[in-house]
Amino acid sequence: MTFIAPVKFAIDLLAVLLLALGIKGLSKVRSAREANRLAAIAMILAAFGVLLNSQGTIGISINSWIWIICGTLIGGILGALIAKRVPMTAMPEIVALFNGCGGMSSLLVALGVALFPSADSSDGVISESIRNFSIVVSLFVGAITFSGSIVAMAKLQGWLSTPSWTQSKARHFFNILSAVLALIGGIYFSIDGQNGLVLIVFASSLLGIGVTLPIGGADMPVVISLLNSYSGVAAAAAGFVVGSQLLIVAGAMVGAAGLILTQVMCDGMNRSLVSVLFGGALGVGSVASGSGGGEYTNITSCSPEECALTLEAAEKVVIVPGYGLAVAQAQHTLREVTRVLENADIEVTYAIHPVAGRMPGHMNVLLAEADVPYEQLKEMDVVNPEFPATDVVLVLGANDVVNPQAKNDQTSPLYGMPVLDVQEARTVFVVKRGMNAGYSGIKNDLFDLQNTSMVFGDAKKVLGDLLLELKELGVGSKG
């Protein structure tokens, strides 16, 4: 069995390299799909390497193999069904759930090692101390990740609202108490080696709930990124627990990538991570404290027919997608509209704000599902200088990310947040169901501007009507 060690080393090395390439490829829309496949292959190799090592060192009984095979089949079938059937609007909830599953997996691994230590699990005081510390970290972070992810999923799904007490100082007392109890449990386990586990898991789960429950929908992209980072940290700690270098490396990579993405999301919202986690929901009390309140005084509404007439005469059009587009499942209808415009030699691009939607990259995935060319997707920093030369901007279900208050009103809670400068275009059409505020809860000054017209209605219906009007005008039918 001496060949097992070099074979496992080769498998682990290949898995790490594929995972690194996968994470790197996810940074670009064009390579994201292939990168996801590489990361999946890396995880399969990693699992095979762990099984190979276990078989070569302690052996795996027939009963163990039955459990492993059954678990693999059940998890694989459930994952495939979810991936095939989940609608695009529920993708953020699924991502949050998967983060929670990762945290729970690490928690169960650490719990299993703590409750059923093998004969060779410790070889000296230092190794046992590292093992116990790693178990405590894995339990602590894993429980926070799982409970926080479930709360995030429930809030995104609309099953949970933000309780009033979570916007008061009581939530800080609750969180501090939970953290202290978890610390006591960790110290107790380090001394005793067995007891304290229940207290760690219970208190950490409460802490995950207490931290996530006050966070509003506007901050959900940050929370999902942070929970993804937590799942990586929990996995790395579990790697120390079971002595798997591959799990340590993979967990550290996921944790670092998630933390970097979290910082990108915070920069995109002009929010610090501390304010997201401990400041409550964005926009709470903002109408009272800032100048974001008040009534609209200069609203201009128009029909899809008027919008079509303006688009017919345009040379450059920019689409700004938002969560309302995902809710209406209108991405395919939008693609049909843009094809008509492109056939008329009208330049069409898409302006992607980093926090548009409810998770990082939500709009990119949504538009990719409708076969929108990658080249047409432009990030905020690239597209903002192009708005003054843009004839028409079509805002679909976006709100706070196009609010001029972020640049013009120092009293606004949005002030300083990077936004899309759509107001600088010649004409702006905003498709919305009504005049409800975005997640920040404040008025959008864009709607009052002279070059802005509101097209009220469901995004899918409005775009369908717009498509019919463009075809009746003969747009795109020439040549």
Characteristic key phrases:
6 strands; 60% helix; 18 helices; six-stranded parallel sheet; 479 residues; Rossmann fold; alpha/beta; globular
Order of helices and strands: HHHHHHHHHHHHEHHEHEHEHEEH
**Estimated radius of gyration:** 26 Å
**Average predicted local confidence, pLDDT:** 83
Structural class: alpha/beta
Strand-residue proportion: 5-15%
Task: Please report the distance between the alpha carbons of the first and last residues.
Answer: 71 Å
**Estimated helix fraction:** 55-70%
Question: Would you give an account of this structure?
Answer:
By secondary structure, the chain is α/β, with parallel strands linked by helices. The protein folds into three domains: 1-85; 88-282, no CATH class; 304-472, Rossmann fold (3-Layer(aba) Sandwich). The protein has 18 helices and six strands. Strand 2, helix 15 (362-369) and strand 3 form a beta-alpha-beta unit. It is globular, with a radius of gyration of 26 Å.
